[in-house]
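1st attempt posting a full record on here, be nice pls
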Amino acid sequence: MKSSKLQRVQVIFREVLDDERLTITGDFSQNDSSDWDSVATVQIVLATEREFGVRLPTELVAQLKDVGQLLSALPD
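the predicted structure (as C-alpha cells):
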C-alpha cells in the first residue's frame, strides 16, 4: 500500500503532467516523463507546498530530479 504522502504527491503529478493514469514511485524522475520539464517542476513544487503547507528550500527546487527527493523534504 502506498503511503499517504506519496498518494497526495501522485495526485499533484497527475494534475500537472495531465495524466490521470500516472503511477509514481520514489524513483520516478524527469527521465520517466517527457512532460516533466522546468515549468512542470515549478508547478509541482507550488502545488506540493500548498498541499502540505510547507515552503520547500530553493536548493531542493533547483536540483529536483525525482519524487524521492520531494518526498524526503516533506513532513511526515
